Amino acid sequence: MERMYKVLKTEGRAKRAVMETVHGTIQTPVFMNVGTVAAIKGAVSTVDLHDLKTQVELSNTYHLHVRTGDKVIKQLGGLHKFMNWDKPILTDSGGFQVFSLAGLRKIKEEGVYFHSHIDGAKIFMGPEESMQIQSNLASTIAMAFDECPSAVAERRYVEDSVARTTRWLERCKKEMNRLNGLEDTINKQQLLFGINQGAIFDDIRIEHAKRISEMDLDGYAVGGLAVGETHEQMYHVLEEVVPYLPQDKPTYLMGVGTPANILEGVERGIDFFDCVYPSRNGRHGHLYTNHGKINLFNEKYKLDTRPIEEGCQCPTCKHYSRAYIRHLLKAKEMLGMRLCVQHNLYFYNEMMEEIREALDEGRFKAYKKQKLENMATPLE
Ligand SMILES: [Zn+2]
Prior knowledge:
Blueprint lengths: L4 E7 L2 E8 L2 E5 L1 E5 L11 H6 L5 E4 H6 L3 H6 L3 H5 L5 E4 L2 H6 L2 E6 L2 E5 L6 E4 L1 H11 L3 E3 L11 H26 L10 E6 L5 H12 L5 E4 L8 H11 L9 E3 L5 H9 L4 E3 L2 H7 L2 E4 L2 E4 L26 H9 L3 H27 L3 H12 L5
Helix pairs in contact: 6-7, 7-8, 10-14, 11-13, 12-13, 13-14
This protein binds zinc ion.
Zinc ion binds next to helix 13.
């Protein structure tokens, strides 16, 4: 394939780019919508995602491996067929879940031994296994298998961990090349993103960024943030590290964050984002609007016939009132959650569209300032 990622415009460090994949074009900056077990939590289907302006769906390697199994999904034609989604899918490597969810884990040079959080079964996952699982799932973009050390981990631990993550990345690349060359591989053009780690130690992160940049991967992620450090520490890491990642490759900030975090990330050169906030908050009746977050459980919405946000073109706001959705949430009707999640995902996806337009027109800085001011000023 020709140059698959092309920067169209920059404003300071902010990038407006386009990426061609076998599953279609991705316009960046982009917010990927998280469907952990091949479903967006809150009963939102892939058919709905088309109406919500979703460009990329994100699924989880570890979760799909332990249930229903990547081999089963491969037999069914891969994740795209399985969940009826023809646009790009990114799969994470499973590393983060192995380290955060699984019990009794043991980290060795070859990989990680752990127990499934579903049935306690003993599992081994290393770089090769993670690549094999993601190849079976046949996602558009696979993530490298890494260890995500805690933001508060000691320097010595982080140094050893990052060195191992680099060795694991070399193995991931080799295995991905092998898998993409096999006859029965579903997506032979699966892309591989490497992940920068190093907790909040600038020098470790920068060294690591330089090292992995030499490996000519399809994209680069900054991982291990939003796991206990402050927002300021996170922004600082981005300022220090992003300049050492290739500018002509996509940059992905994993698992972040609030609308404000995303605006700050874009300004620092990030163009891929993902986060569970819009769906998780939606399920709890917390809705994003251009004038801050609102809680629909609040008594004051009982007789409120307005949509969640006036002027919002999402499937929820076009048809339903705050009062009705509040009633559904209070009655614990699944429809309440679904309507809220749809609005929140649309809000995020539309904000990304606004960001892209602002970058196209060279007014991102002004847009960002206005958006942040609006969101900090509640209407009611
Ligand atoms: Zn809406």
